[in-house]
Amino acid sequence: MDRLRRCGLLIVGLASFSCTGSPSSLLPSTQPLEASRDRHGIQFNTTTSHPVPVRLAPGSKIGLLHEDRDEADQFVRVALEQTIFSMKASIPSLVVVERRSIEDLEKEFRFQARGKVRDQDLAKIGHFLGLDYVVVFDALYQDLNELYGLRNQIDTWDVTLPVKIIAVNTAEVTLHCLATTKANVGKQMTAAEVRLLNQEALSMATTQVNQCLSSSLEGTAL
Question: Under DSSP, is residue 36 helix (H, G, I), strand (E, B) or coil?
Fold first, then answer.
């Protein structure tokens, strides 16, 4: 009887392995990653593109191109810059060009984000800077200047944050990380409250995009 019971357990174990331990289930998922958080009674849901391993050549020079249009943009830029600098821990040969080295050239080219500059133009700016890769982002959300009255009815609030790494020589998009945060609000808010809501949603999207960047590039170059 004990022998039969052991055989039965072995069969169950093999059956469980065939369902959960098969090679197909061990392959990396390509589905968007999801995260949620409740803050002050508001539910924030974020979806993020799945990290895709990207290899940067040893000694590559990389820099972030962006012209801040408001404090929200500045917050995202600073967070991304910190993430890019942190990449040197896993890619010691990576050369990160500092912000102040980029600002003057941005002014010279009258560089602006918000979709007014094509990837080819961004690559051209990167070429003049001596970069191999440029990092760009464009935070998308409702115009905060359109808030009206003392209180505004906010049902939902969406923030989308696409971040791209563009190869300068080919203008090819080497990596594209995209995060979208949706806040389910359903109440009236003052303009100041909406701005805080936007910052919270943008903060969540930025965190997820940074994780996508780090996971995609970590350990992919010598």
Answer: strand
